[in-house]
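Field reference: sequence -> structure
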Amino acid sequence: METTTKTLAWHGDPALKAEVMERMRAHRADDAIVQGTYQRIDPEAASGYRGCAIGCTLPQQPAVREGRCDCGCESRPEVGWHGEVERLYGIDMWIGHAIDDVFEGLDPTECGDFAVNVIDVIPVGADLSDLSDWAHSLTRRGFGKEEAPDIAADLIERLRNAPVPTPA
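Structure field:
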């Protein structure tokens, strides 16, 4: 019988979450969290780049690609922005897609705070596997800008309440 090991948010490492949150807060303070691109080189930004909710979680990528996700991460989750977030932080790629979809749907005056808050509420060691199917269906069905604020609140609440397994 094959057993699978669940990936836990932040790979169970509080220092990893702290590193990402420091990056997110610095991007927010620099007004470097922007809609419409994953990462964009900007020498005037303190970090050297601006990015979206997911793009700002990551260090600047060597081969910055701008625009919507055309990286093949749906069929090859080991590549692309969302695959990197899954690999590096243990945050399922479909949750990453949902975060970005909501982020892009929000009013520009609200999206920066959302980006920081939605990442911050993810508990260290949370098992996000039950949220993956919900996030996948959300990104597949799509939604309008008028729904984005309610979906943002729902997503934050679901992530905040994700179960954190106790060690055996």
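Note: The first strand starts at residue 39 and ends at 41.
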